[in-house]
Specification:
Distance between the termini: 27 Å
Structural class: mainly alpha
C-alpha cells in the first residue's frame, strides 16, 4: 500500500515536466529519421533484396538502441533526480513516514517504465511508418500482415538489455546533486560504448554496449547480453538502494 502511494505521488509530480514529454519525443525523432531515410532512398531499399519489414525495424532499432537510448536514459534519470535535488525537496521528502528503500524502488521503477514505454512507441511506430511508406512510395511494398510479434520482440529485447544501464545511471543521478555530473557520466559512458562496440573482448562486458550484442542475430551473444543486463541490473539496484538508505542526505 505504501509503495503504491509513493508511486502515485511520483507520477503526479512528473506531470508537465520535460521528462514526461521526452517519453514520446525521443522515439519520434528516431522514427522520423528512419522514415526520411527510407523515403529518400526508396528505390535502393526496394532493390536491396532484403525483407522490407526486417530492414526497417533493424534500421530503427540500430538508431534507438545503440545511440539514442543510452543518451535518453542519461537525460531522463538526470531530470528525474533533479526534481529532488533542487531546493530542499530531499529534506521534505525524507521527513515523510516512508521507508527509504520504498522511495528508491519507485525512483528506479519510473525510468524503467519510461524506457519500456518509449521502446514500445518506437517499435510499434515502425509499423505505422511502413504503412505510410507503402502508400507514399509504391515501390516499397511492405507485405501483410503487420509483424506485431517482431515489434514486441524488439521492445522487450531493447528494454531488457538496458536494465543494467538504467540501474547504474539512476544510482549516479541520485548520488550526485548536479545535473552536469550525471549527464557527463552518461555521455562519457555512451562515447566509450561506441568505441568498444566492435571489441570482442570488452564490448560484451561494457553495459552501454549490450544493445549492440542484440544486433548479431546469434543466440549466444543475445543470451549473454540479456542475462548480464538482468543480473547486473539487479546487483546495481541493490547496491544503489543500500547506499541510498545509509547515506546522509542534506538539502
Amino acid at each position: 500500500m505504501m509503495l503504491r502511494r509513493v508511486l502515485r505521488a511520483e507520477l503526479l509530480k512528473l506531470r508537465r515536466t520535460l521528462a514526461f514529454w521526452m517519453v514520446p519525443a525521443a522515439p519520434f525523432v528516431v522514427l522520423l529519421l528512419s522514415f526520411l531515410m527510407f523515403h529518400q532512398r526508396s528505390e535502393y531499399f526496394a532493390k536491396s533484396g532484403k525483407p522490407l519489414w526486417e530492414n526497417l525495424q533493424r534500421n530503427s532499432f540500430v538508431l534507438w538502441a545503440v545511440l539514442m537510448m543510452p543518451l535518453y536514459i542519461t537525460l531522463q534519470t538526470a531530470l528525474l533526480a533533479g526534481l529532488e535535488h533542487s531546493g530542499e525537496r530531499w529534506r521534505n521528502l525524507l521527513a515523510l513516514p516512508v521507508r527509504r528503500w520504498t522511495l528508491y524502488v519507485v525512483k528506479l521503477a519510473i525510468p524503467c517504465a519510461m524506457v519500456f514505454a518509449s521502446s514500445a512507441i518506437l517499435n510499434f511506430g515502425v509499423l505505422l511508418s511502413g504503412v505510410l511508406l507503402t502508400n507514399l512510395k509504391p515501390e516499397l511494398r511492405f507485405p501483410s500482415p503487420l509483424p506485431w510479434a517482431q515489434a514486441w520482440d524488439y521492445t522487450f529485447l531493447s528494454f531488457t538489455a538496458s536494465l543494467l544501464v538504467i540501474a547504474i545511471q539512476q544510482w549516479v543521478s541520485l548520488r550526485f546533486a548536479t545535473f552536469a555530473a550525471s549527464a557527463g557520466f552518461g555521455i562519457c559512458c555512451t562515447v566509450a560504448g561506441s568505441i568498444l562496440a566492435n571489441s570482442q573482448k570488452y564490448g560484451p562486458w561494457w553495459p552501454w554496449c549490450l544493445p549492440v550484442q542484440l544486433m548479431t542475430g546469434k543466440p549466444e551473444p543475445i543470451a549473454h547480453a540479456l542475462w548480464y543486463s538482468c543480473l547486473g541490473g539487479l546487483i546495481a539496484a541493490v547496491l544503489g538502494g543500500v547506499e541510498f538508505c545509509r547515506r546522509e542526505i542534506r538539502g
